[in-house]
Each structure stands twice: as structure tokens, then as C-alpha cells.
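[Q] Does anyone have a clean C-alpha cell version of this?
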Amino acid sequence: MKTRKPQKKAKKPMPSNKSRTSGATIARKGKSLANLETISAPSNETAFREVLALIEGARARALQAVNTELIDLYWRVGEEINRRIAADGWGKSTISSLASYVRQEQPNLRGFSSQNLWRMRQLFDAYARQTKLSALLRELSWTCNLLILGRCRGVINEGMS
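[A] Here you go.
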């Protein structure tokens, strides 16, 4: 006895609810193509650009706020590490243990390796006595701050006291 192979049903193409003409055209369910509602981009382009500018401005301000908060966090972590080094004698092994602890407690958290923790301490140590500079460093990204620290190690502490 022969067994029949099941026939595959041919997939029907999905009807498109969008049609492109001069602008974007949106078809409503149950309406014929003659009754389509059209959004005309050229006649509203100025208004659309204004809304887009609002979105982009808010996005830029949000990114700047996040950056400022991160730099402030790194400053406070560096300050705490600096205080613990002076008061409790923290050293390389303690900072490595702290990095491991952070990684264990918050596995998805990035940026708190032993090396980065030392950099946070370096950031605090370099700018702690420079009130004008310490306020400005929050306007720069972490990467920019690291580049400045790497190139100006002695200059920040010696020339600006």
C-alpha cells in the first residue's frame, strides 16, 4: 500500500495595507482603494521636522543626563575607594575582590572591572582639589576623561594646585 505525502499548502501573499504614491498611504480595513486616507508628507513637512527636532533634542538631553549621572557615580566610587585606601589600607587584592563581588552580585552590570575601579579612583584623586575642573569633567564622556587622565597625569596634579 502506498502512503501519500501530505501536500504543502501554498502560502497566500499577505494583502498590503500600504501603498506608496506621492506620500505614505494607509488603507483602512474594509475600505476600497478609492477611499484611502493619505498622509501627505510634503504639505506637513515643516511641522513634521519640528516634531522630529523636539524628539532629537529630548534624546540628546537624556543622553547628556545619563552621562552626567555616570560620571558622578564614577566620582563617588573613586572617592569611596580613595577613602578606604587611606582609612582601611585597601590595595590591589581588595579592589580585585570588590570587582569580583560586583560581578557576582550584578552579572549584567558592566564597567566595574578592577582596572576601571582604579581609574575611578584616579579620576577622583586627580580632580578632588580642582573644584573648577571637577565640575567640568561631568560634561565629558568617560572615554574623554580617561584620555585626558592618560595624557595629563602629572600636569593636573602639579600645574593646577
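[Q] Thanks! Anything notable?
[A] The helical segments are 41-88, 92-105, 114-127, 131-136, 142-151, 153-159.
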